[in-house]
Structures are given as C-alpha cells and as structure tokens.
C-alpha cells in the first residue's frame, strides 16, 4: 500500500492525510476483494523498517490502526471476514496486541474472505525465526535435520495455513519487494501500478484481476 506520503505531498498536505485516506482505501479494497470472490487478501500495513520513521508518523499510523481495530474491523467481523495478523507482535503496544488477538479469536470461525494484515512485518526476520524454531526442535531431539522440507519450513512462518499469493500488487510505481513475503512470493505474479495507494480503487483492482487471468503460469515447467 505504497504512496500515501507522495499522495499527500502532491496536494501540499501533511503525510498523515495520505495515511488517513489510505485507511479509507483499505476498507474499499477489502470489500471489493470479498465481492470478487478472493479468498485471501494480505495487506502490508507496517514494516519492521517503518519503526525508523519519525515518532509523529509512527504515532499517526498506530493511531489509525487502533481506530481501525476498534471500528472498521468490528464491521468486517460481522461480514464473515476472518482476520489474521503477521509480524513481530512484541514490538507493538500491549493494547494493540490485545485488540489483534481478540479479533483473531472472534473471527476464527468465519469462512468468508481471510484478511491478513502484515504489521511490524519483515520477511527476513520471519525466515530467520522459522530457521531458529526448526533448529530448536532438532536440538531438543523432537525432529531430525532430514525432516526439514519445504512444507515443514512453510508451517514455521507466520503465514502457516495461508496459501502462497497468486498475485502481488504494489502501488505508487516502485518496483521492489521491500522485505515482503520473500519466501511466499516464489511463484507469484507481480503487478506494479503507478497509482498512489489513496487513489487505488475497486475499478483498478478489477482491471488488474482481469490482467492476471490472461497470464500463463508455468511454475518452472514448459
Ligand atoms: C506506504 O506509503 C504506506 C505505509 C507505510 C502505511 C500504510 C498504512 C495505511 C494504508 C493506513 C493504515 C492501515 C490500516 C490497516 C488501517 P508511504 O508512507 O511509504 O508513502 P510514500 O512512499 O509516498 O512516502
């Protein structure tokens, strides 16, 4: 969800306005994804690197998140959306973690769209954590080195039980992954749009899904 800051700067507004408008887009796109029959939507809301932004900006983003957890996500809960969070929870304030855990528990039985929010997320750290978990099991004698395979390793990531993405969309014209789902994106189709996230909408999502449908996915085969 890139481009909130540039969207605001283009209008002579503080960056926080871009994030606020971006939070509105989150609602529109989540609704549209559910209507389009998408089963899993993962949003990169805050990276581990984003902690290095100014205290004011971090505080704006955490404020929006608190608000979102209290109001908007409660709405999603009623709409049969299952909510999951991925990322380093111990970096987040205790009240935010408590609200996240409550929502995950309350929506666990929902069987509509799974909305996965990457928060304080960094893919390299996720992979290192998984390697540590596997090593600890081997060290304890609960598993042998030979037991470690792709499936077992995948199950040690935050995304356990969430299928690898079919399509990655990055807004704002940047063409890089920025430490996002590095393992999970191995065979994902990429789509980069110049649209800033606050301007992204349902029509553009529909166009991108239609483009995706024309792609030939070979997974390394001929
Ligand atoms: C990237 O744009 C966006 C973020 C770091 C934050 C994304 C957050 C939201 C869309 C709102 C809150 C989210 C939820 C789930 C309620 P940028 O700030 O890097 O923009 P720039 O590259 O133009 O400066």
Q: What characteristics describe this protein?
A:
three-stranded parallel sheet, 45% helix, 222 residues, alpha/beta
Protein model, in words:
- The strands form 2 sheets. The chain has a 3-stranded parallel beta sheet, with helices on both faces. The chain has a two-stranded parallel ribbon with strand order 4-5.
- Helix 1 packs across helix 2, helix 2 packs parallel to helix 3 and helix 3 packs parallel to helix 4.
- It has 7 helices and 5 strands.
- Helices cover 45% and strands 13% of the residues.
- It is α/β, with parallel strands linked by helices.
- Helix 4 links the parallel strand 2 and strand 3.
- Farnesyl diphosphate (FPP) binds next to helix 1, helix 2, strand 1 and helix 3.
- The site of farnesyl diphosphate has 20 residues, from helix 1, helix 2, strand 1 and helix 3.
Q: Summary?
A:
The chain is an alpha/beta fold and 222 residues long.
């Amino acid at each position: 969800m890139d481009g909130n800051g540039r969207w605001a700067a283009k209008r002579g507004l503080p960056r926080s306005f871009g994030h606020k408008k971006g939070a509105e887009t989150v609602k529109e796109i989540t609704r549209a994804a559910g209507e389009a029959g998408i089963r899993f939507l993962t949003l990169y809301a805050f990276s581990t690197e984003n902690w290095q932004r100014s205290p004011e900006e971090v505080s704006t983003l955490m404020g929006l998140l608190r608000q979102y957890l209290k109001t908007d996500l409660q709405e999603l809960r009623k709409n049969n959306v299952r909510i999951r969070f991925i990322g380093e929870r111990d970096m987040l304030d205790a009240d935010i973690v408590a609200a996240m855990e409550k929502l995950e528990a309350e929506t666990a039985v929902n069987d509509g769209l799974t909305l996965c929010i990457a928060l304080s997320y960094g893919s390299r750290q996720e992979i290192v954590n998984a390697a540590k978990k596997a090593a600890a099991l081997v060290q304890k004698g609960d598993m042998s080195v030979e037991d470690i395979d792709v499936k077992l390793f995948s199950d040690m990531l935050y995304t356990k039980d969430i299928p690898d993405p079919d399509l990655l969309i990055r807004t704002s014209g940047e063409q890089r992954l920025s430490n996002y789902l590095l393992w999970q994106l191995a065979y994902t189709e990429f789509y980069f749009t110049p649209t800033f996230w606050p301007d992204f909408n349902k029509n553009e999502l529909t166009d991108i899904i239609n483009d995706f449908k024309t792609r030939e996915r070979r997974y390394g085969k001929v």
